[in-house]
Amino acid sequence: MTPSKFTLNPGESKTVSIHIDNGGLVPDSRFYFGNVMVKPTGNTTLPEMSLPVAIAVPPPAVVLDAPSVDVSVKAGSTGLARVDMVNDGGGTLKFQLNNSPVEQELHSAPHNTVATAFASTIWTELSPAGQQAQFGSDDFYLQSETTITSFFTEGFVSSRKPLETVASTITWSIFRDGGDQPDGDPLQSPGKAVWSYTAAPATAGITISSPSDRINANIRLDLAAVGQNLRLPPGRYWLVVNTAGAYADNWNWFATDSGDADDLYRLLLLPRDGTTWGDYVFHKGLSMDITGKFQCGAPWLGMPSPVSGSLKGGERRNVSITVNSAGMAPGTYTAYACFDTTDAKRPKVAEQIRMTVTR
Q1: Element at 109 (helix H, strand E)
Q2: Alpha helix (H) ranges present in 103-209?
Q3: Structure pTM?
Q4: What is the per-residue pLDDT for 163?
Q5: Contact yes or no for 174/232 (Cβ under 8 A)
Q6: Among 169-173, 268-272, 290-294, which stretch is predicted with the lowest mean pLDDT?
Q7: Which of 338, 303, 233 is nearest to 80 (CA)?
Q8: CA neighbours within 13 Å on the CB side: how many for 274?
Q9: Distance linking the first and last C-alpha atoms of the chain
Q10: Spatial separation of the C-alpha atoms in residues 50 and 37, rounded to whole Å
Q11: For 158-211, how does the pLDDT look when each residue is reduced to its tens digit (9 = 90+)?
């Protein structure tokens, strides 16, 4: 404590600094308690005072300052990509290069407080307006060849019944981009989908999460658990998730205002003669999380410097990675530099490196 001894005149106040050494504490957000005792000297009629002190050290938390690093080099030359790694938590964060394949979140857009939602259902009977179905769709981007591992979409059932009891099937469809809209739909042109999967809600690998009031019906699909191997090349794609059931039991897909500004989505109403996708721009997209697995490293991506290291809480480290365009034609190339970390929530992180080769 500084100062360790002080005098206060009548009506006077003074600031005292308490120095804490957390080096021996486990960084797990658990609180440790102690007391600072202030004892009077001279006048023994004054009471001793005790000030409780509690300290918690958060665990290490890795943050990559930017989702990608761009570097431009001339053909046949080398350049340097700089990755900023930060320990946004406490304790010591350790990192180590590991260019084995990595699985991570590719697209995250929770609906949060957005209450807007749209039906995405093929109806067993025509709607009062004579329609057969309504679909929602949102786009996502892949920067490299990726194996999709899971989809998670947030929604609810109009009738507030459990989705498992009112939907005969759930269908996931992936369409290529057809000029800022899906190149196909699940009812008029399902064959245009680059991939689709249909199953009953109770299928192992499909999870319907609903609170006790049964209002929400969030749907998660684990592709490996249902025997699906979905590997997609780089590009822009559109996801459609829809149920099949009665008009009164629509599954409604929540909109979102999170995600990228260009996350547009389309709504499709299908009367008997069919129609085209329409644009709805009042929100940024539909609520969906997509995870995937992709390869790390590339022949043109050099070793980082340093290959491994440690960061104290709040510390930042610049990791330099050499890129080499020898024998490569002009164009843009994408790869990932991947690191193991001691962050329990993100044990492996991937920094996207985009190298543009010029003449």
Answers
A1: strand 102-109
A2: 163-166
A3: 0.76
A4: 93
A5: yes
A6: 268-272
A7: 303
A8: 7
A9: 64
A10: 5
A11: 998 999 999 999 999 999 999 889 999 999 999 999 999 999 999 999 999 865
- Give the Cβ contact number of residue 345 at 10 Å: 10
| Concatenated DSSP letters of 270-316 | EETT----EEE-SSSEE-EEEEEEE----TTEEEEESSEEEEETT-E
pLDDT in tens, 221-255: 999 999 999 999 999 999 999 999 999 999 999 99
Distance of CA 260 to the CA centre of its chain: 12
Q: Which helix (H) or strand (E) holds 253?
A: strand 251-256
52 upstream amide cis, omega within 30 of 0: no
Separation between Cα atoms, residue 122 and residue 236, nearest integer Å: 25
Q: How far apart are CA 300 and CA 328, in angstroms?
A: 9
Cα separation, 354 vs 336, in Å, equals: 9
Q: Which of 72-76, 220-224, 279-283 has the lowest mean pLDDT?
A: 279-283
The distance of Cα 28 from the centroid of its chain, to the nearest Å, equals 23
Give CA separation, 32 vs 3, 21, 37, 51, 169, in Å: 24, 12, 17, 14, 52
Structure tokens that stand for 124 in this block: 């067993």
